[in-house]
Amino acid sequence: MKMKAILFKKKGEYSLEEVPVPGLESKEVLIKVNSCGICGTDVHIYEGNFPANFPLIPGHEFSGIIEDKGKDVKNLKIGDHVTVNPNLPCGKCDQCRVGNENLCIDLLNLGVRLNGGFAEYVKAKNSLVYKLPDEVDLESASLTEPLSCCIHGIDLAQIKPGECVLVTGCGPIGLLMIQLAKICGAAKIVATDPIEKRRKLALSLGADLSLNPNDVNIQEAIGNFLPGKPEVVVECVGKSSTQEESIRLVKPGGRVIWFGVANPDDEIKINPYYVYKNEITIKGSFVNPYTTKRAVRLLSEKRIRLKELISHRFSLEDFDKAMMTHMKDPDRIKVVVKP
Ligand SMILES: [Zn+2]
Ligand SMILES: [Zn+2]
Q1: 109: CA distance to ligand 2 center in Å?
Q2: Ligand closest to CA 86
Q3: Which residues, at least 6 apart from 286, have a Cβ–Cβ distance to it below 8 Å?
Q4: Least distant ligand from the CA of 96
Q5: Cα separation of 35 and 339, whole Å?
Q6: CA separation for the pair 208, 186 (Å, rounded)
Q7: What's the pLDDT tens digit per position in 9-43?
Q8: What distance in angstroms lies between residue 100's CA and the mean position of ligand 2's atoms?
Q9: 309 and 335 in contact (C-beta within 8 Å)?
Q10: Of 7, 9, 165, 280, whose CB count within 10 A is highest?
Q11: Residues contacting residue 210 through CB under 8 Å, at least 6 positions apart
C-alpha cells in the first residue's frame, strides 16, 4: 500500500512523494493522521540547523485515528483517537536511568530522526501513544506536543499563586504559556509581541497587559503596571537580545525560563555580578519529560484553549504554502497540515 508524504530529501529540498505505508513491529500502531502542526523545528531541520536523519518525513505535532496495530499492543484499539509524544528515550543511558529522559543521549524523535506526521499515515511505538476521549477535537489535539513542552517549562518556573509573570513572544508557545501561568494562579500576566493580532489574542487568553516592544520601554511599562518586576519571565522568542534582556526584566530572587530556541551559534553577554547579587535563576527548558499525560488531561477537561491558536490549515499538496505561511506571514499563529 502507498501513501502521500512530504519527504525532506536533504537540507533545503523537499517534495510530495508516494511512499510505502510503514510496516508495523509487534508493539507499534499505525495512525491515520488527522492534523500535523508546523513548528519552528521543522524549519530548522529544512534549513539544516537541526540534526536530523535525511531522507525524512518531518512533523512531530500530530493527532489521528488508529488504523492498525501490532500483535502485542494491548492498551489501544483500532479506531481510537490518539495523540503522540514524539520523543522516544533509549531507556539505557545515565540520564534515562535517573529520570531525565528528555536529556537522553540517544533520543529518537518522530519527525526528526524517525518519520513523522506530514503524511497520510505514521507509525509509533505504543508507549508514546495517548488515547483521547472521542469528543476531543482532533485538530486541537495536534497541539498536545507543544502544550506538553510548555507544561515542562512552567514546572521549571515554579510559579506560585499570586506571583506575576512576563511572557515575551506571543506565538503559539507564548499563548500556551499565558494560559498555563493563569492556571498556576499568576496574579498578573504581561505579554510582549510586536504583532498586534498576537497581542490581542494574548489578552483574550488571559494576559492582563500586552506590550509592543518596538513602541514602549518594556521595563518601564511593566514597572508602572505591576508595579515592579515580575517574579517569573518566560522567554518564548529565542533571540539572543530578548534572552539577554530577560535577566534584567525579572525581579531579584526570580526565575527566568529560556524556552525560545536560540540559534546554536549565538552568544550573549551576562553580567555575572548582577546575577549573583540579585540571585537570578536562569533555566533552560527542553522538550516534554513526563508531561504528555497532563497535556491530554488539560485538553480533555477543556482547561486550555487550543483551537484559537490555529490560524491556517493546508492540505499535504499545499505543504509549500503551509511552510511559506509559517515563515513569512506575520499574522500566522499555528499552521496545521491536514493530510
Ligand atoms: Zn515543535
Ligand atoms: Zn537514554
Answers
A1: 12
A2: 1
A3: 102, 103, 152
A4: 2
A5: 7
A6: 10
A7: 999 999 999 999 999 999 999 999 999 999 999 99
A8: 8
A9: no
A10: 165
A11: 170, 190, 191, 192, 193, 199, 200, 202, 203
Taking the CA of 39 as reference, the closest ligand is 1
Task: Return the domain boundaries, the chain.
Answer: 2-143+306-337, 148-284
Report whether pLDDT(152) > 90: yes
- CATH number for region 148-284: 3.40.50.720
Can you read off the three cell numbers belonging to residue 144?
Answer: 498536545
Question: How does pLDDT run across 302-323, given as a tens digit for each residue?
Answer: 999 999 999 999 999 999 999 9
What ipTM is given for this predicted complex? 0.97
Crossing angle for the helix pair 144-157 and 292-300, to the nearest 10 degrees: 110
Domain 2-143+306-337 CATH assignment equals 3.90.180.10: yes
Residues measured by CB to lie within 5 Å of ligand 2, the ion: 89-90, 93, 96, 104
Ligand 1 geometric centre to CA of 38 (Å): 7
- The ligand minimizing its distance to the Cα of 110 is 1
Cα separation, 17 vs 152, whole angstroms: 36
CA of 216 to the centre of ligand 1 (A): 30
